[in-house]
Design a protein that fits this description.
binds adenosine-5'-triphosphate, globular, 10 helices, nucleotide-binding, ABC_transporter_ATP-binding, six-stranded mixed sheet, AAA+_ATPase
Length: about 260
């Protein structure tokens, strides 16, 4: 289980930027951009949580804090009761993170990339081979395992990145827009993989703009708007609050009404 409580993150703006201030966003103040002002949610074992929000809402900033790539200014991130803000090394061991900008080593093959990260996490010998083979099979990677990563298609790269992110069997999996830019077949493989993680009991948090994916996969959603989590609940509660069975419509109502407050 992962619990996120009162996360905040601001970024210092350059003097130049502050002088020529044109932004209407209330998060820009005192020489800082307050990307995440107050975000809280939790995701239990075997639950899939969809992180929703308009462009610029603060989803990626939040997920980067969960991955320990960014340190929050305040707030707590508890995995199995331990605060990974205070213990980021522990966080890196227990979280598997796929970001939109994760890079692969272009000169290494898909297989070599995944094995390299497996070794970084301490896997070796038969355990490494078995874990990698299972992932290659599950993510349908066998046809391109020996190709250099710089020659892979977008979908092949994404599968390799996902394998790399979960090779150490993390307690919690966090995926930032995992299906963006993928064709229908590859997207299906990724969604099936998320469902399998859930069946194995792993909490999965993923950000997306595709509410059809949320409908198919998510047990609950958290909506972030302008750096603040304004809704957390299951899909029934989401539809009720948005007064619409159609998730896109419900989402737009929730955002509109949050912004009117
Ligand atoms: N290093 C930074 N310095 C200044 N502002 C930043 C920085 N990183 C993010 N931001 C700002 O914080 C806000 C939230 O960005 P974030 O990438 O978290 O949004 P998002 O919800 O993931 O958006 P999208 O759906 O478009 O990916 C944006 O306005 C962004 O410009």
């Amino acid at each position: 289980m992962i619990q996120v409580e009162g996360l905040q993150k601001r970024f210092k703006l350059s003097k130049e930027h502050s002088k020529n201030k044109t932004s209407q966003d209330a998060r820009e103040r005192d020489g800082y951009f307050h990307s995440v002002e107050s975000v809280s949610f939790q995701c239990q074992q075997a639950e899939v949580l969809g992180l929703l929000g308009p462009n610029g809402a603060g989803k990626t900033t939040t997920l980067r804090m969960l991955s320990t790539a960014l340190t929050p200014d305040s707030g707590a991130i508890l995995v199995g009761g331990q605060d990974i803000v205070k213990n980021p090394l522990y966080g890196r061991r227990c979280i598997g993170f796929l970001s939109g900008t994760t890079g692969l080593y272009g000169r290494l093959t898909a297989k070599e990339n995944v094995e390299y990260f497996a070794r970084l996490h301490g896997l070796k010998g038969k355990a490494l081979k078995a874990r990698c083979e299972l992932l290659f099979e599950t993510l349908d990677m066998t046809a391109f395992l020996d190709k250099r990563s710089d020659s892979l298609s977008t979908g092949m790269k994404q599968k390799t990145n996902i394998a790399r992110a979960v090779v150490h069997q993390p307690q919690v999996v966090i995926l930032d827009e995992p299906t963006t830019g993928l064709d229908i077949m590859t997207k299906q493989t990724v969604l099936t993989f998320i469902r399998q993680l859930k069946e194995q009991g792993t909490p999965v948090i993923f950000s997306t703009h595709h509410l059809d994916e949320v409908d198919m996969l998510c047990d609950k959603v958290c909506v972030i708007d302008k750096g603040i989590s304004c809704f957390e609940g299951d899909l029934d509660a989401f539809r009720t609050l948005g007064r619409n069975n159609e998730l896109n419509q419900a989402f737009m109502t929730i955002i509109r009404e949050t912004q009117d407050v």
